[in-house]
Backbone:
């Protein structure tokens, strides 16, 4: 089970007292989404001004600007998901990237606290192997992105995405195939793969590329399958041979073209 993985591994970007205050606020306003800001290492509850507060949140800047002027810069934003979705929505990811601070999600379905999850590039990077699958936080793209960021200093765009985006139609539903060139990758031969190269896969009958991993060398690929709510999958490293039949592309970042990745 994924519950409280970040807490157990010391990955929260704010103090536990802040988390506990935010959880109490979420419980008090349930079934609406709670929302608040972290300033001066304190949680400040805000009014959810969204037209559908049970489904989304909106914080008026006027509510917290005074706190910033008196106490210091914005450190984090925390809101709740009363419907129980542990990962961020595409809108959540856009809000977080625009704010440039960690965002926290309090997962509280049926008024029962299930988890607290933070996301954003300033949240400590989790271990590569053994992560529970959480869409938009610990998924296949996030794992490859974190690996390249930590090992090679290569920062890829973090494309905002909805859960199971490959099952939807319309814009932003072919995330990997439409964006690998924008992220700086070019195709290479499967027999030419080097550490740091990406492997794109299509499986489970999908007509879109819906999985990716990173080749780490010695015949191994690092990847993270989605699983299901009843079967939480952990990130793992396993023989690339197992995934070759699902592979559509081997990709190399342009910064690695001049020689082997170091």
Residues:
């Amino acid at each position: 089970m994924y519950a409280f993985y970040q807490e157990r591994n010391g990955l929260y970007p704010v103090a536990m007292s802040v988390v506990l205050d935010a959880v109490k606020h979420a419980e008090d306003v349930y079934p609406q989404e709670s929302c608040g800001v972290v300033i001066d290492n304190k949680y400040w509850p805000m009014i959810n001004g969204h037209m559908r507060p049970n489904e989304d949140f909106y914080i008026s800047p006027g509510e917290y600007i005074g706190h910033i002027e008196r106490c210091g810069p914005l450190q984090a934003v925390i809101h709740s998901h009363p419907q129980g979705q542990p990962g961020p929505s595409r809108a959540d990811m856009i809000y977080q990237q625009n704010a440039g601070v960690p965002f926290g999600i309090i997962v509280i379905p049926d008024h029962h606290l299930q988890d607290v999850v933070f996301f954003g590039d300033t949240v400590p990077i989790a271990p590569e192997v053994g992560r529970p699958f959480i869409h938009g936080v610990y998924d296949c793209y996030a794992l490859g992105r974190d690996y390249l960021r930590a090992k090679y200093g290569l920062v890829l765009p973090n494309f905002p995405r909805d859960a199971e985006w490959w099952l939807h139609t319309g814009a932003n539903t072919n995330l990997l195939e439409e964006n690998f060139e924008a992220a700086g990758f070019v195709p290479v031969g499967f027999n030419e793969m080097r550490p740091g190269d990406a492997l794109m896969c299509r499986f489970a009958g999908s007509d879109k590329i819906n999985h990716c991993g990173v080749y780490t060398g010695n015949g191994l690929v690092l990847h993270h399958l989605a699983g299901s709510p009843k079967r939480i999958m952990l990130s793992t490293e396993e023989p690339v041979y197992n995934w070759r039949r699902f592979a559509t592309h081997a990709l190399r970042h342009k910064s690695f073209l001049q020689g082997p990745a170091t």
Summary: The first helix runs from residue 5 to 8. The mean pLDDT is 93. Helices lie at 5-8, 16-29, 61-71, 90-99, 140-152, 175-179.
